[in-house]
Predict the 3D structure of the following.
Amino acid sequence: MKGLIGKKIGMTQVFNDEGNLVPVTVVDVNTCQVVGKRTPEKDKYSAVTLGFGEVREKNLSKAEVGFFKKNGAQLRRHVKEFRVSTEEAAGFNVGEAVKADLFTKGQLVDVTGVTKGRGFQGVMKRWKFKGSQTATRGTHEYRRHPGAIGQRKTPGRVYPNKKLPGHYGVEQVTTQNLAVVDVDVEKGLLLIKGTIAGHNDGIVIVRPSIKVALREQHKAARSK
């Protein structure tokens, strides 16, 4: 399996084996379950579909309910597909729970989440502008403004992607190479060092570090 779906519980702090205080984010992966599989014979690729979070049937569409019933799986609120090899997919059956012990203590992971929504913001908060540096006589109500945004006759327009005020947040962000500080299989919790994008109770995707995997592939290729 290439990852888990989880819910961000919040942040706390723990002491590691050396006695140092480590800030961690607690991720609940307790209700992860295999709800479907993709096979090369039928779908032209191999994958495992995971479901997370309990939900009532009336809160799902007919198509979603039909998907779960056709596969003989329990209803789940969130669904995510993970590409795996044919051999890896053979080790999982629909209806099986996928537990937190998929990851080990000390392993590096990539965590994907959706950042908090902050509404309409100015350039100083949205793009970290410094603001006006001439806050002396003659400067009025312009300390937090973006400044000049274009030219006059040539080209006579504002370039695309110009950093201006606008909606800030609600973006998918992946934080890479975070260490798994501890794994609680009984409670279905992962303690991951550092911060993760999103608000408490937000849905996150935890995967093994892609950079570590690529590094191992390059080492194997060089050793041949």
